[in-house]
Design a protein that fits this description.
With 265 residues, this protein is an all-beta fold.
Length: 265
Amino acid sequence: MKRIRQHEPLQYGYTTITTVDEQTNNTLMDFGILRLAAGMSYADNRLLEKAYLLISGEVRLTWSGKTETISRENCFDCDPWVLHVPKNVGVTVTGVGANSEISITRTENDTEFSAKLYPPSECASEKRGQGTMRETSTRIVRTVFDYSNAPYSKLVIGEVIDFPGKWSSYPPHHHPQPEIYFYKFLPENGYGFCELGEDVVKLRNNDTVKIVRGETHPQTTAPGYAMYYIWAIRHLDGNPYITPTFVPEHTWVLEKDAKIWPYDC
């Protein structure tokens, strides 16, 4: 399955969504959602590189003798906190707020590096698509870390916010490195669609999509509903993700003076 549907609300504790050792459609990543009530704790000592992204709520992080309490009102309006640690560093996450959600992404990486807590102020947040395509693909793209600022990592971690009725990851692009998208909608009963090559899947709140064969993967959300998704890319050995390849026949829409019907609008 390339779309993993969360039919019921996420339960408290850790919900496994993908694993590094899956037999089919393997993304080379562990990925799951940790939901905590106040006072609940989760200890993670897996010998894997790990990234903890606070989706919403308030939690206390403990690692390498350090403790930090972080909070995020929601994932649509606020930039994220992300804790990134190498495989030999254990992390404990403790709920402080009444209801907190954290994504956990893990992968194999023997490289030693210093653990880092990325605050919202260090997140590269930008409006992409602005001024082109009559704003039909204007969206917010947040990049926490990638090859440019964390070349020692095997991961790229970021978020996208789609405005109601608009597109993202457009023009269609692809790359050989596997990727995971995890979705939230505002309101939660919203929906959208993901292109996977020649296929299209319908998306709902808490769904996950795996992109594992270099498929094109633009997204769109229904009018009235904002769509949020985490994107996690796994670098391939000797072939890190730097930039995607756009489908040439559609790149003309990026030109600011592109003639798009109806031409007199």
